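Team,

Forwarding the record for the chain on the shared tracking sheet. I've put the sequence and predicted structure together so nobody has to dig through attachments.
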Amino acid sequence: MADDTLTAKQEVKQEVCVKEEAKSEAGSSDEIKGESQAIATTNGGAAREDQIKKTEVKVKVKAEATDTETQTVKAEVDVKSDTNTNDTNGGAASEKAVTPKDETPAVVKTDPDLIRKIINQVEYYFGDANLMKDKFLQTKIKEDNGWVALSILLTFNRLKSLSEDVSVIISALDESTTGLLQISMDRQKVRRSVDHPLPNQTEEWKVELAARSAYAKGFPLDVTLDKLLSFLGSFGKVDHIQMRRDREKKFKRSVFVIFVSKEGCSKFMDQEELKFETDDAEPLLRQMKDDYFNVKKEARKQMKGNKQKEKEEERIKQAKATEDEFQAKITHGTIMVLSGFEGKMDRQDVKNFFNDKDDCGTVVWVDLHEEKKEVRLRFKEENQAKDILEKLKDPDTGKVKVLSQTLEGLVLEGDEESSHWKGIFESQSRKRKAPGGGGGRGRGRGGKRHRGGRR
């Protein structure tokens, strides 16, 4: 122990010698500077002035080097003296004493709130909730065995807003007690501790995550993330907060929060009534995150069902409107069907049979179906076919005698009548759309009569 004390004294003495040598060097530098000035005064000229400047630079560099060496020697002597003192007191020399790093900026030492914010922010970057989805940070982690330079983290606006000084951030991280982060030897990088690997996204992990994830609504529109962290952190350490926003980036007054522990989440949810900051604020609406999504899912399902119901009702309404419009175009009770013809039938003969009689109305159209031995007549006036059929029916057999043939007769009604009229309207539509169609006579607008110009 005495030898150690003697060694320390010798080193102090060596330091004094170094200081004297430094002074001597400084004196020599003054002499050199004086010689340089004398050369400039005696000879004059630009060349000499250049030489003076070069000489002064060399002297300055040498003096600075001497000061640096002196300071280095002094630091080493101070450290060794502290080490000898510890040995003298019977304690082993600690790593912190051998590698002095008590260089924590004063602002960090006196501002525990800043320390807390820095720790929370950096641990958020490397926490489960963020790191699992942060593609940029995942890429950087792969580049250097998990390490990420503080210079990269300082490109993140929120950390940058707390401090742009790497030493401030590192010194704050020294105070973390979670063990989540590791600091590199050069104190310029951090990484997630190898003792805290990212969890595998198993079903068990998802259940555990759900048990500490909550939803809350009712916060002011102008609330800040710091205030949310402070408020929610009073129930337990917070892993992640998502301030929910609409498409215009406007805060929806609601958040998703993931607590580090289930106990913190339970404490938050178990409050009988919870208000943010002031007693006159509206009570917060709170749900477990999974319950919130289940309610939303059911609401969306209900909404979808309502929309489908409304859509079906609208479809029915449109169909009814179309049907009503269609029925309005139909002349009801005008289609007579005569079946059972023998031999060949002539359309015009059948038409004339009715039109030549004073009491058989007016037939405007005849459809002849020889394969069915059937003819369909369309009368001009509503219910005319029904009235005429009743007149022509034999009272005993109920059959109709037309052109010396005894036929079965009926009048189309209901769906059969509608189907027949749809066929009529479709046929008319096809004729209108066909080239040269339009229902009128003549060559149309493209004929010679309508070419325009003078003859």
